[in-house]
Design brief:
Layout: H1 17-27, H2 40-48, H3 59-69, H4 92-95, E1 98-104, H5 108-111, H6 115-125, E2 130-136, H7 140-149, E3 167-171, H8 178-188, E4 203-207, E5 223-225, H9 229-245, H10 250-260, E6 264-265, E7 270-274, E8 280-285, E9 323-326, E10 328-329, H11 339-343, E11 348-349, H12 352-366, E12 370-374, H13 384-395, E13 401-403, H14 411-419, E14 427-433, H15 437-442, H16 449-461, E15 466-473, H17 480-495, E16 506-513, H18 530-546, E17 551-555, H19 558-568, H20 575-583, H21 597-607, H22 611-615, H23 636-654
Parallel strand pairs: 1-2, 1-3, 3-4, 4-5, 9-12, 12-13, 14-15, 15-16, 16-17
Antiparallel strand pairs: 5-6, 7-8, 10-11
Helix pairs in contact: 1-12, 6-9, 8-20, 12-13, 14-16, 17-18, 20-21
Bound molecules: iron/sulfur cluster (SF4).
């Protein structure tokens, strides 16, 4: 679940003294980036305060950002760029043959925590002739100043106008970033709709998990990359450079790239035809040679793929402020609701030696005191005990902690205490998803109450006192006791600590609402109605009041989950709604303090689209889905069988007929 943090307020921030000392100590002096370049710290300081060096271009924008924007915004440090390990310096942009603006459509504090963006930044800037600079979404106060003063969206590294890039590469991570994408395009001075752009505008290319169903954003994107970013971006850069040398105009590159690479989709080169009932009849290419089906790009050699060995160190506290190393891509668990579990296949593992090598280099380049082993399910990394032991042996003496962001609750949980012996015993987070064994088995979450409690006893013995449990509500066929079970199980997890003669654990139960996702067996299922989610919330809070202090219940925002469900399975008719919502002021919809459900309701009304048709309608197996032309390695038939299996298993476990368990009506 995405964390939502308010951007930090306060004065101009610099790294605290302890971190800076560690950084310099680890690096053996001030860190440097490319050989022969001035120390990054010196570049950073000149970017902030010193007399600007003579610049080839953009001196004016650089100065205007310093003079007109930074003094007028909260936490200006998030906009200054020039962080430790920045790879771009003065003059690089101007000299590059291909200029890329890497856009993360969210605040700096989120974007800087995103490993994928650091990977692409590293990859581009280690490609000869290419310069990539980063850009993030300005927060509301910065946007206001930029619009008042006519400041265009700029890149963080050397403050270039984003519209001057050859390629604007946008990372689509979640459904609620769409209006922020439009806002960034508008601030950059780039026409929102692909059809309105000319050869003077950058190619707008999107990728990331949400690009798997790009249809709601179809009219705003020139190209969409399906699958992994490393291999695809390298290939696009290569092709773009060649086309540019050959004098091919940018807009003509769109069909050339779409024909050349099987994992590129140019949505505006396809027509969608609809049936009278509003469902899709067909998606038809407008030009010859375009593929009817878009494949998924996979990185051919994951272990050797480019990885940022000198990651950027943010100026301000961010969501994940540590060294992050992706040790595995994909997840062997394949829980039925999980989009990543089905789309990131086959599995790839990074070798222990390579992880150790990256960890050493990244530590020396950053001075971080935390090392995160990232993957969708870190406990499934086959060599985790060996890796953890070797990392601990090397880094525990340096007071560097290991962190495991996603833990599976089975026998592996017992190993966590010794593997993470240096970890601060704060809170341990476990995704149990459902409260009862039979529902967990039906969604393929391989957890039982028994192995949960066995593992927790080991964790409590090792010193942990706080547990955060993630649950989901709204599964097809869910019953009352699945909801009360959330409370019962959370209470039992808390009380289990008493068995060791210690006070009960402090348990937080975070309850989210099922958003049926494309490319999962639930892609045909109806989302539960909002009244159901509100009722679940009321009941759980009532149980919490009945025993104050035992368990803290937290629930997700119902309105945002419904909007996610609409966008996740939407078609390109939603583009008008997104545009209308943006025009009415929607931005940062993933943030509790900025999301405004009434704006979206008015936008749906104005455009004449019923959100319930997208969120709450159960699809039939023969319906053409908006993302059916995007490839899935395991195939659609597998998903059909998996959905039927879910219904039958749950029905069998509960002694009812499968027909009562939310089967599609015309299966
Ligand atoms: S374990 Fe997590 S990442 Fe893996 S399939 Fe299940 S929900 Fe997805």
């Amino acid at each position: 679940m995405r964390q939502k943090l308010r951007p930090h307020r306060g004065a101009f921030a610099v790294p605290d003294g302890a971190r800076w000392y560690r950084l310099v100590q680890a690096a053996g002096g001030a860190p440097r980036d490319k050989p022969g370049r001035r120390p990054v710290a010196a570049v950073r300081l000149s970017a902030m305060h010193e007399s600007p060096e003579p610049m080839v271009v953009s001196t004016t924008l650089r100065e205007r950002v310093s003079d007109e924007l930074l003094p007028r915004v909260r936490q200006p440090a998030q906009y200054i760029g020039g962080e430790v390990n920045q790879l771009v310096g003065p003059g690089d942009w101007e000299q590059a043959e291909v200029r890329v603006a890497l856009a993360f459509p969210d605040a700096y504090t989120i974007g800087m925590s995103h490993l994928g963006c650091q990977i692409l930044y590293w990859l581009c800037n280690h490609t000869p002739g290419v310069c990539a600079e980063r850009t993030y979404a300005p927060w509301a106060d910065a946007e206001r100043v930029m619009r008042q003063r006519g400041l265009p969206l700029f890149t963080w590294d050397t403050r270039q106008p984003v519209r001057d890039a050859d390629i604007l590469a946008i990372s689509l991570q979640y459904e609620l970033c769409f209006t922020t994408v439009l806002n960034m395009l508008d601030l950059a001075g780039i026409p929102l709709r692909s059809a309105d752009r000319t050869d003077a505008h950058p190619l707008v290319v999107a990728g990331g998990p949400q690009a798997d169903n790009p249809e709601p954003m179809a009219e705003f994107l020139d190209l969409v990359v399906i699958g992994d970013g490393e291999h695809s971006l390298a290939a696009i850069l290569d092709a773009y450079r060649q086309y540019k040398r050959d004098g091919v105009p940018r807009r003509e590159m769109i069909p050339l790239l779409a024909r050349r690479f099987p994992w590129i989709y140019a949505p505006n080169l396809y027509d969608v035809r609809y049936k009278p009932d509003g469902t899709i009849a067909a998606l038809v290419p407008k030009l010859d040679g375009l593929p009817a089906r878009i494949e998924r790009c996979r990185t051919p050699d994951f272990d050797a793929a480019p990885f940022p060995e000198r990651p950027l160190v943010p100026w301000v506290p961010v969501v994940h402020d540590r060294i992050s190393i992706e040790i595995m891509r994909g997840c062997p668990q394949v829980c039925r609701f999980c989009h990543a579990g089905y789309t990131k296949r086959p599995l790839f593992y990074r070798s222990v030696e390579r992880v150790l090598e990256i960890a050493e280099r990244a530590y020396r380049a950053t001075g971080h005191d935390q090392l995160g082993l990232l993957s969708l399910s870190t406990a499934d990394y086959p060599l985790l005990p060996e890796l953890a032991a070797r990392l601990n042996a090397r880094f525990a003496p340096r007071m560097v902690n290991l962190s495991f962001p996603s833990l599976r609750i089975d026998r592996m949980l017992r190993h966590i205490p010794w593997m993470a012996s240096g970890v601060r015993k704060g809170s341990i987070t476990l995704a149990v998803e459902a409260a009862r064994d039979d529902l967990r088995a039906a969604i393929r979450k391989k957890v039982t109450d028994g192995n949960l409690m066995d593992g927790l006893r080991e964790v409590y013995r090792a010193g942990w006192q706080r547990v955060k449990l993630y649950f989901m509500a709204g599964f097809p066929g869910e019953r009352d006791d699945d909801i009360t079970g959330i409370w019962d199980l959370s209470l039992a997890v808390s009380q289990e600590r008493r068995r060791l003669g210690r006070p009960p654990a402090r348990v937080t139960a975070a309850v989210g609402w099922l958003v049926p996702k494309p490319f999962t067996p639930f892609q045909w299922a109806a989302q539960a109605p909002p009244e159901y989610f509100h009722d679940v919330r009321r009941r759980l809070l009532h149980l919490q009041r009945s025993r104050p202090g035992a368990v803290c219940i937290r629930t997700h925002n119902v309105a945002t989950s419904i909007l996610e469900a609409v966008m996740a399975r939407g078609d390109r008719r939603l583009g008008a709604v997104i545009h209308e919502a943006w025009r009415r002021g929607a931005r940062f919809d993933g943030w509790a303090e900025t999301f405004d459900a009434s704006i979206w309701q008015r936008a749906f009304d104005a455009v004449g689209v019923d959100p319930a048709w997208y969120a709450r309608r159960e699809r039939t197996f023969d319906e053409v889905l908006p993302w059916d032309h995007i490839g899935l390695r395991i195939g659609r038939d597998f998903l059909v069988r998996s959905y039927l299996d879910y219904c039958q298993r749950l029905a069998a476990a509960r002694g009812v007929q499968p027909q009562t368990a939310a089967l599609p009506q015309r299966a």
